[in-house]
Amino acid sequence: MDNVWAYRTENLGTTFKVAGEWDRVITFDTLADLAEELRKANMAAGQVSKLGIVAHGNTPGVVQLKPAHLTAASAGQYSADFTTLRKYLRADARVIFYSCIAGQGSQGSALLNELSEKHLGGRHVIGFERYGLVGSSPPDEPAGKMRCNISAVVNEKFLCDPTSTGNPVTDRIVKADQILNEYSIYAKWSYRGQIIKLPYDETIRQTYSVPEVRCGPAAVKKAADDPLTRAEIDYIAINTTKSPSKALIFLYVWVQEAPRDIKWSRVRDVPRRRLIEFSEEDRKLVREHGGKLEPRDEIVAVFKKKMTPIYKCAWGLCPGHLPIKDYCTQNLEHVPNGPLK
Description:
alpha/beta; seven-stranded mixed sheet; 9 helices; 23% helix; 22% strand
């Protein structure tokens, strides 16, 4: 079985060499050319286990091919080419489109589902929701070296942050961070006309409220006394390393008698008082959000900044893509050569 890395040279401007898990590297101009190159390489029927197609994308649901861009709507005109390509593919092969953001959003899903259902039946069709970066290792890039990028700007590197999810964007084969491949968190899988693996941006919903600070004893006390703002206070911090002013002494007493529903963090025990230690992090937060701290005002109320992750399953047997990880994992394990294999 062979893994084939096929790339268009016309608009890519990069050359590749055989490396890693990729056994062959070929160039092509059209899908018909790609099929012809496989024939010239004496590929047997069902010999290709993985086919990486490298071409520009830059638009959700679009792979830039000739004579027309490949989209869900235009896929029919490539039907004959896909029929020819299909005979070289293993029954459970993976066809991976290394095309910037071609798998992103509903348009990306439509393209991948159209191909996996009508043109590459039984094979997995995979795209990405992020941009890919190549061309920095002269004279040739190793096949498979497609770095994840968050921007379309080609002259600058905006590598995807592997810590954004708490898990590295890891290539399970070469153990390298920020590499786009089918195991990346930014990969989307389609199988028999249905998305079976969602990428990161479609599996997690982030809810943020902009952090806010109130500086000084009077402002903090006012915020905490008001039930509407009190519920949004994340914590109150007081600088206990300086001699407190009369206002702070007054506030110390108030803090001990504060309403019970105020949530405390970074708690520091002080004799007869339970206070929050003012830190350099608090000072930075004040600066970033336009606040000013006077010498006697080193007390802040910091309002909530939170992220609420909601994970969704991609497998169709999970009604409404419910966030039931174990149930979805069990089903995905039964997909031939699927995402968890």
